[in-house]
Amino acid sequence: QSVLTQPPSASGTPGQRVTVSCSGSSSNIGSNYVYWYQQLPGTAPKLLIYKNNQRPSGVPDRFSGSKSGTSASLAISGLRSEDEADYYCAGWDDSLSGVVFGGGTKLTVL
Amino acid sequence: QVQLVQSGAEVKKPGASVKVSCKASGYTFTSYHMHWVRQAPGQGPEWMGFINPSGGSTTYAKKFQGRVTMTRDTSTSTVYMELSSLRSEDTGVYYCARGYDTGGHFDYWGQGTLVTVSS
């Protein structure tokens, strides 16, 4: 049971816009930054969004993040086949004094 | 360029210990915390803790306190993670990840080390 809650799956067709949600509490998302990671099969997670809505260099602007209260979202516009991957949200939890992750959302491009 | 290169796969029996290494290059080793994150098969990542390579201080996730030890060797820019009293539930891929400012911000990751615990 993950501290951050994500839907197990999401899907879309090429060109569509999809969103992935991440729900937490006042001790994590509500008071700290949210990070998003993309994990392709057999590889390490890759940082996609940091500090709620910032993109590292090299990450396409098709990816965007937002946060409101104790929830956060990752949006992917202009969906492409190479976006098919697992997506995880993460952040610091003040009560646990540690980093917590979501259970992950498997994105399928139909 | 920043690189984190981890040691190879391990197979251990229940009750044994495993020590995984992570060699850093391409940046000032002592300027960034190094975290360890593990991922059980089919599961999401799980944070284990981190070490400050500058002074060697450590912070461990409550779940692993008493079983995990993180150390570093500044002469070789290498960090180590040792997990003891292994059980089958410890099977998974173990990653080192460079921490950048606040908690949860991991900008570079190692390639991962598969640890299999089986009798």
Keywords:
heterodimer; A: 110 residues; mainly beta; B: 119 residues; four-stranded antiparallel β-sheet; 11 strands; 0% helix; globular
Topology readout:
The complex is a heterodimer of chains A (110) and B (119).
Chain A lengths: L8 E4 L5 E6 L10 E6 L6 E4 L13 E6 L2 E6 L8 E9 L4 E4 L3 E5 L1
Chain B lengths: L2 E4 L3 E3 L5 E8 L8 E6 L5 E7 L6 E3 L7 E6 L4 E6 L8 E8 L6 E4 L3 E5 L2
Parallel strand pairs in B: 2-11
Antiparallel strand pairs in B: 1-3, 3-8, 4-5, 4-9, 5-6, 7-8, 9-10, 9-11
What can you see in these coordinates?
- The complex is a heterodimer of chains A (110) and B (119).
- Chain A is mostly beta strands.
- In chain A, 0% of the residues lie in helices and 45% in strands.
- The N and C termini of chain A lie far apart (28 Å).
- Chain B is mainly β and 119 residues long.
- In chain B, strand 7 (68-73) and strand 8 (78-83) form a beta hairpin.
- Chain B is globular.
- Chain A binds chain B through residues 2, 32-35, 37, 44-47, 50-51, 56, 88, 90-92, 96-104, and chain B through 35, 37, 43-47, 49, 59, 61-62, 95, 97, 100, 102-107, 109-112.
